[in-house]
Specification:
Strand content: 15-25%
Oligomer: single chain
Strand order of the largest sheet: 5-6-7-8-9-12-17-16
Shape: globular
Distance between the termini: 46 Å
Length: 556
Amino acid sequence: MTTNMLPAHEVRQREIVRKAAVRAFELPELPSGLWFHGDIRDNFYYASYLFAAAADHEMDLPFDRGEAAAAAVRVLGEVLALQNADPTAELYGHWPLGLGPAPREARPSPLPAELMAGLMAYFAARYDAALPAGLRAAFRDALTHAYRSRFYDKPLRDFNHHEAKYTALKLIFGRLFADEALHADGRRSLKRTLAHVRERGMAEYGALPWFWHWVQAFTCALALAGDDGGREDEEERADLRGLLDWLWHERALYYLKGAWAAPHARALGHDLPKDGNVLFDYAQFGDFPLPDALPRTEYAGLLFYEAPEEARRTALDRRKPAEVRKRIAREYGGEEKMLHAYTYLTARFAAGGLLERCEEFDNEQHRWDVTLPLMASGSVNKAYFFHPGRGYAEGDPRHRSGHEQVLFHKNIVMALYDIPETEDGRIVGVLPKGEWIAAGNALHALVNDVYLTVYLMQPFALREERDRMTVVCAGRRHGAVVEAMSAEDADCMGIDSVEALAAGRKQRPPAFSDGETLRIDYVTRQGQPLRLEWTGANGTPASETAELKSKGGVWR
């Protein structure tokens, strides 16, 4: 079958499979028989893609198909052999995560099996006829050990990504091993999970590695659910489709041409300051080029669930600006806290974030930014400022502190910083590459077809790097205003260049106050006065409450 006869998403998935397979075939095999010692899952993913490409006789490949299949079989066999098969061991049924210099001696971890076991069940079922008998038996043995270990047999409590994968495995293993009690528990857990997200949303807001684990786990469960026509099976499939529909609706709300425009409970290095974990978006939406770099392949090229048409329209049609307000129920220290996320999305950019600061896993909360679509130039696509906090390292602009207060209004973000004497006395900014002009304490730029303006309370140093502009402001009290505007809107205001933007905005910059009360006063182009103020490093900003009351929209 030629690619022009395939559905568009299958064509894009084949692109992913081929790109990953070509990279896998070029990898040097280490003495251990593996390609990677950093994360065992990378070996499994790339070997899966290499085998899938070799098994697809319609795919044009730049290498020998038989040689590729043999290499994939060797690596998959070695991955399976690293499972702890001792039923008396504490981590029976598990694989190591980081392999170190001697993979056979690496200590098992409870993490890889959570997602990998379900993907293994899917892979073994999909390629059953093509697998050599020995590898087919090795998959069967590995899945049997994982099933017997019962690591997934836990009650629902937090409705997080761990429990989502456990629920999917209850369904998969319950069916695979004819365990009716486990299968029934999985169906109950699925119903409760679906009801929870519909009523309460996801506490792990915008946590991309985990979100895609939800998607993959339940897509696997649906693919393996069978179709025997029984009432309970039909109900299970309907609940799985309902949950996957909800997940894709959630994704669509914050989608902007490959970018995730919203705050993140957790952001890894390939999420910031450039969206890199984009393969599932590419397969689903396909409105941006497939990147050269594949920092997180997982099973984006092998698993697919078609998003509902309404979700696709939301994601792909941004002609009308939209404001998304979300209330997020989050438990901290046994107490529930309600967070408020605001995101303003247009066809050219998005802006917003989370009103409240919270301690998240590894201090990886990303609180706010202005987001642009992915750029072919390789530039980062996020603009934001932060005070470095726990876990920060030079060159990795994540891990912010809590010494920050924010205000969001459509295309504008305002932020204040009051830094204690005991901590790093500076704020750091990350900006995309573009035509930047510095004027006093302001920066102006045209990035593709978006004008960006940054106003800062303190003098700054601007440094151009390979894929970004980095801004550093020394001092302990800071204010920042970041504003975005499409070139079309700018043209309506008589702005046709960066120079015109800078000249026009000199007449009405924000007013920064650095007295006992830190304050920013700013009047938007539409004449809307905005004020953000903060009394002391431990004070409560009046603007936070005012912002919630003044927005006038519904917080869902």
